[in-house]
Amino acid sequence: MADRKQLTYANAGVSFEAESEAISRLKPLVQTTYRPEVLSDVGSFGGLFALKSYQEPVLVSSTDSVGTKLKVAFKVGRHDTVGFDIVAHCGNDIVVQGAEPLFFLDYIGISKVEPAAIEGIVTGLAAGCREIGCALIGGEIAELSDIYTLGEYDLVGTIVGAVEKADVITGEEIAPGDQLIGLGSTGLHTNGFSLVRRIVFDKCGYDVNTYLPELSATVGQALLECHKSYVKSVLELCKVCKIKGIAHITGGGLPGNVLRILPDGCVADIQKGTWEIPPIFPFLQEKGNVEEVEMYRVFNMGVGMVVVLAADAVDDALKSLNASGESTYRIGEVVAGEKGVQGVGS
User: Fold this and answer.
1) 3-state secondary structure of 268
2) Which pLDDT belongs to residue 42?
3) Four-residue CA torsion sign, 280, 284, 286, 291
């Protein structure tokens, strides 16, 4: 006899009630990020944003994910830091081209909607957006029990910003003699966590509550340190001097990311030992027996962003960046040669 039990969406693993509760929790958080240009509210099919105050605007966008740093958040049971991370990462990716962040959209794919976890994520997203003056204008919560492992989720963000066409930073004008200014990082940011987890959890056998005297923190605290946002500092710097190029140091480290902004005929000569390396990096190198060249190719090694300037702009730039609270280092210069990066990762 055929089973005549009536099926519901909840039987299939999707709860309208949990999603409704999550949305009710996140709505006031989202509204704290709104700018005057936002014309829609939570629950609209599409986010509306009125583009104002630009003569010849160029829209700049970026999409990224938090990656396997999420695995640490799952272990710790804390979700706000990764929300902040994705906004900071995406904001940094567009400010390197001179863009002011305008609005942000998120995607949360989760096995089972847990309102408290969603609230934590959006708390971090909202904090990240407020930090850079960006509106959290929309998003998606997808309950996909057949795709995601119970208790886990994926977090992806998209940011859109704008810059006047005449002010786009491209790197095309970089030339021999230009100087490289490094901006200090807060640690790992959001890159290299597949290697980090292999070292810390698999090789060393630590758990997230293990206290590490070398880092004056537990494993969880050290690994969940937020990705630093450089948006405000860079936008202020744009008012002070001409920036020839900026590289956000993410996956690929200094050699991989600085290379992306160099024109032909230019070599970035980076001098190791000219900046402070946070203790998390030598700790990982020692515990994982990782070669130095690999460290520089995987991690930011204490430099979260590299700014390229003409030599006569350096003093004004350092004054502006230091006033914005950045740790700044003169880490090298551009020399003539076949396009490349030397001094690190080789």
Assistant:
1) strand
2) 83
3) negative
- pTM of this structure: 0.92
Q: Is 39 helix (H, G, I), strand (E, B) or coil?
A: coil
- Find the distance separating the first CA and the last CA of the chain, reported in whole Å: 70
CB 346 within 8 A of CB 255: yes
Could you tell me how many residues make up the chain?
A: 346
**One-letter amino acid for residue 340 of the chain:** G
pLDDT tens digits, one per residue of 300-312? 999 999 999 999 9
Ranges of residues in the chain whose predicted pLDDT is under 50: 1, 7
SS3 content of the chain, % helix, strand, coil (to 5): 35, 25, 40
Burial 81-98 (b: 16+ CB within 10 A, else e): bbbbbbbbbbbbbbbbbb
Question: Burial, 5: exposed, middle or buried (Cβ in 10 Å; 0-12, 13-18, 19+)?
Answer: exposed
